[in-house]
Specification:
The chain is an alpha+beta fold. The chain is built from 15 helices and 9 strands. The protein has 3 domains: 126 residues, no CATH class; 104 residues, Serine Threonine Protein Phosphatase 5, Tetratricopeptide repeat (Alpha Horseshoe), CATH 1.25.40; 112 residues. The chain is extended.
Length: 416
């Protein structure tokens, strides 16, 4: 109850702050200049109100959008006043009227606010919001998300063909991280629309993948491809399709999806630059030449490691030309997941490499997030990313990320 009245008093105070300053400033100007024109008065009031809005914006009291709307209203009101008012001087009578208006505003605004709220709000309960809470919740306007989900479930039992309701329920499940329930509900929603809505299909695929441990293989990828048949430029579907093919190692298709996304994003935007880096990574993995523009964008910002990998002459006969070569960097202290990795073959040796943030397997696990790293190279006959007995490798000593330039790695160890 106390919180309610504090908020109410603050709102009334804010209203008075908007109403009183123009009147007070007008009275002060009347005592100094009896001949001031109404147009000049309007200009001063407009500037003061605009300054108050700017202060509220800088203090975070209002958003940029609210500021623009309020500013537009002030400008419109100012222009209307300028067109309709004359330049008649402010008289002594106006000053008296102004003082009276100020007193009336101070007294009547709070009284009217409480009276009108009591009449048009919830009666006695309007003055005691705790008593009104059960009724408000019964109407579905308050309560936790779980409570709203239960009400929505009850509604859908009575209205099973409410497509919008099913979609809202599915997104609520997703927000609550109940991915299995979200996937089932998205499936039902999409079925009601005969699988014709691309966005719903993409949401269904996303929820199903999350329920399967973020795995896009199988049904999720099929749903995404169907969504792209309906809407080929749907960003979420392209992201999910690129993720699915990346997870399966089908980098040719991944490159295609990434290039389609690059065409959609505004040039120079954050998404555009990130997609350039993703494309550079895939082109390196496929052994394709990296476009100059993309290579520049991929190297811009963040940490990078460069060097060359060679195979010791003593192990030349132990490696086939088609064996897989992994060059990677990982945190010196922490998870063993690579922070950046490049995949080539033995026939590419000696191989000049560059590892940077664009090659991170996880956005939260990238080179620039760690001060100390180790850099390694491994030749795998099986092509398995996990080390196996018989693989050939070299691992550097821990070193600072900023110091790793022109590094030379010589593969000379056999994993036992």
């Amino acid at each position: 109850m106390m919180v309610f009245w504090l908020v109410a008093v603050l709102l009334i105070a804010v209203a008075l702050l908007f109403l009183l300053p123009p009147l007070i400033q007008k009275l002060q100007r009347d005592s100094n200049e009896d001949a001031i024109g109404r147009d000049e008065l309007n200009v001063t009031i407009f500037k003061d109100q605009l300054a108050e809005l700017e202060l509220d914006l800088s203090a975070g009291v209002i958003t940029q959008e609210q500021y623009e709307v309020a500013k537009h209203d002030l400008e419109r009101s100012f222009l209307q006043d300028a067109n309709t008012e004359t330049d008649a001087p402010v008289s002594q009578t106006d000053s008296v009227v102004g003082r009276s208006a100020a007193v009336v505003i101070v007294v009547l605004v709070p009284l009217l606010a409480v009276s009108i709220y009591n009449m048009l709000g919830s009666g006695k309960a309007g003055l005691h919001p705790e008593d009104a809470r059960p009724q408000v919740q019964a109407e579905g306007h308050e309560g936790t998300l779980e409570e709203q989900v239960r009400k929505l479930q009850d509604h859908l039992q009575q209205n099973p063909d409410d497509v919008e309701g099913w979609g809202m329920l599915a997104r609520s499940y997703y927000f609550l991280k109940q991915y299995g329930a979200a996937a089932e509900t998205f499936a039902r929603t999409s079925a009601l629309l005969q699988d014709s809505n691309a966005e719903l299909l993409a949401d269904y695929a996303d929820a199903l993948a999350m329920a399967n441990g973020r795995n896009m293989a199988g049904r999720p990828y099929e749903l995404v491809k169907k969504a792209l048949e309906i809407e080929p430029r749907l960003q979420k579907a392209l992201w999910l399709a690129g993720t699915a093919t990346y997870q399966s190692g089908n980098f040719e298709d991944t490159l295609g999806y990434w290039k389609r996304l690059l065409e959609i994003f505004p040039k120079g935007s954050e998404n555009y630059l990130q997609m350039q880096k993703n494309i550079a990574e895939i082109q390196q993995r496929l052994g394709l030449p990296v476009d100059t523009e993309i290579q520049t964008a991929a190297a811009a910002g963040g940490a990078s490691i460069s060097g060359v990998v060679r195979l010791d002459e003593s192990l030349m006969l132990d490696a086939g030309v088609d064996d897989t070569l992994f060059v990677y960097a990982r945190a010196a202290n922490g998870p063993r997941m690579p922070l950046a990795i490049v995949r080539k073959t033995v026939k590419d040796l000696p191989f000049e490499f560059t590892l940077d943030d664009s090659m991170a397997m996880n956005p939260a696990m990238k080179l620039s997030n760690f001060q100390q790293v180790v850099v390694g190279a491994r030749i795998s006959k099986s092509g398995n990313a996990m080390p196996q007995p018989g693989d050939l490798q070299v691992v550097s000593q821990p070193m600072g990320v900023d110091d790793v330039k022109g590094l030379e790695l010589v593969i000379s160890e056999v994993i036992q």
